[in-house]
Amino acid sequence: MSAALSWAIEGRDWPHRAASRFVTAAGLSWHVQSMGQGPTLLLLHGTGASTHSWRDLMPLLARDFHVVAVDLPGHGFTQAPDRDLLSLPAMARGLAALLRMLGVSPDGVVGHSAGAAIALRMVLTKTIAPDCLISLNGALLPFKGVASQLFPSVARLLVLNPLVPRFFAWRAGSADAVTQLLEGTGSRLDARGQELYRRLFSNRVHVASTLGMMANWDLEGLGRSFGKIDVPVLLVVGAGDKAVSPAEAREVARRLPDARTETLPGVGHLAHEEQPEAVARLIGIEMLRHRELIAC
Q1: Which of 41, 137, 205, 249 is the most exposed place for a label (fewest CB within 10 A)?
Q2: For 132-141, how does the pLDDT look when each residue is reduced to its tens digit (9 = 90+)?
Q3: pTM to 2 decimals?
C-alpha cells in the first residue's frame, strides 16, 4: 500500500517541509523530520495524527535538543504496511529498525497518546534506553468493561470493509466534521491545525491505518509489564482531556517503578498543540533534571 498523503500535493506546504526526509526501513518508506542540535529527543505522535502535531513544539525544543519526529506507519507520509503490522509490537519493531537506519539513540522520548505506549514497549524490549520518557496524555491502559471486548471487534469489522475508510474520509472532509472530532478530545485548535487534520481525516489510507491501529491495539500485555519499566516517566495530563481520562495517569503512575504526574489546566487531549510553550518547558526541565542526576 502507498503512503497516505502525497508529498507532491499535500506536502507542498507541510509544516517544516525543509526538515523532512524519507528513509527506508523495515520494508517501509518513513517520513522523518529533524532539527536542532544537542541531546536527541524522539517525538512519537498518537493514533490518527502525524508530524504536523509537533509543528509549534518542535522549534521550541530545537533550541536545546536535536529533535527527531516520524510519521507512524500508514500515517501522514509514511507508507502503510499490511494490517497485521499495525499492532503495538510491530510498530515498536519497525521504529527500532528506523532508528538503527538513522543511527539515532534517543536521550529522551516524548510520546503522545498511543505514541507513549509505543515508547514504553521499546523500553521494555531494550531497543531504546533514554534518560527519561515523557507521556503526553498517554493512552496506556486498556478499555474497561464491555468496551474492552466491543471496541477492537468493531474496529476490525470496520477496517476489513474497504468501503468504510472511504466513507469515513468522505464524511471527515468537511470543516465542521473535523471541528467536532477535535472538540471531542477536549481540545480547541486554530484554523491551521484544523486544516491539517482535515487533510489527514479526508484521506482513506490514513483513515484505514488509524482504524487498523485501533483493531490491533492490545495494551493488556504492556500493563502487565509496567513493573519492568526501568526508565523514569513523566505523565503530563491535560485536565480537560476527553479522550483519555486524567485519572488513568494516576493509576499508571502507581504501577510504574519511577513515575510522576504533571497536570496542565485548560487543555485537552492535544495539549502539546494548544500550549506548546508550557509543554516545551516541562520537557526541558525533565530532560535537564535527569541528565544532571546521571552526571552526578
Answers
A1: 205
A2: 999 999 999 9
A3: 0.91
